[in-house]
Design goal:
Organism: Aquamicrobium soli
Order of helices and strands: EHEHEEHHHEHHH
Domain General stress protein 17M-like: 6-71
Radius of gyration: 15 Å
Number of domains: 1
Largest sheet: 5 strands, antiparallel
Number of helices: 8
Distance between the termini: 32 Å
Protein name: General stress protein
Shape: globular
Biased composition (Polar residues): 26-37
Helix content: 40-55%
Number of strands: 5
Strand content: 15-25%
Region (Disordered): 21-54
């Protein structure tokens, strides 16, 4: 298994990538999406019973309706340093578990720990987390070697963020790493952040 990730500035582009991954044969249980909820996506539709059940005990609450597969199970959770996010999939459950563990004295890890534990290089995990903090959407998939080339093509489409360029942009503004202790951006700040 290989873990592949892509950051999107536009939530709809991320949704399209999730749909394409599922259509290419990647099981929805191996795909995750985490999006900044600065636009209150969680309030767009009513709760989904399936997502509430999936999120029970993991800190995922009210949810967004939507398409079938993974997107039907989007839930809302809070990630330190990011604030509220809409999320679904194994990465969301891992991050929520890390946050819950930290709340009761366990080891902290949150989104960075969840990403690095899944094989994402720490340097990239910090950019992904900061990208979510600034209003973006992260799609992460665990794929077999057989499905990896097609999943890489899907996630590498022109609508995804060039991670190295985004890192350079952040660093040019003095950013060094994602800080889970930093206050979350207010909705109007998250929408404006590069």
């Amino acid at each position: 298994m290989k873990t592949l990730s892509a950051l999107y500035d536009d939530y709809d582009d991320a949704q399209d990538a999730v749909g394409e991954l599922e259509a290419s044969g990647v099981p929805s249980s191996d795909v995750s999406i985490v999006a900044n909820d600065s636009r209150n996506r969680s309030r767009d539709d009513g709760p989904s019973e399936a997502a509430e059940d999936a999120g029970a005990g993991a800190g995922i609450g009210a949810v967004v309706g939507g398409a079938g597969g993974l997107l039907a199970g989007l839930g809302v959770m809070a990630i330190p340093g990011i604030g509220p996010v809409v999320a679904a999939g194994w990465l969301a459950a891992t991050a929520a578990g890390a946050v819950a563990g930290a709340a009761v004295g366990g080891a902290a890890g949150g989104i960075i720990g969840a990403l690095t534990d899944s094989g994402v290089p720490e340097r990239d995990a910090h950019v992904y987390a900061e990208g979510i903090r600034r209003g973006g959407t992260l799609v992460t998939a665990r794929v077999s070697d057989e499905l990896a080339p097609e999943a890489e093509r899907i996630l590498g489409q022109s609508t995804s963020v060039d991670l190295d360029r985004r890192r350079r942009d952040y660093e040019a503004d003095g950013w060094t790493a994602f800080d889970p202790a930093a206050p979350a951006y207010a909705p109007e700040e998250a929408r404006r952040a590069p």
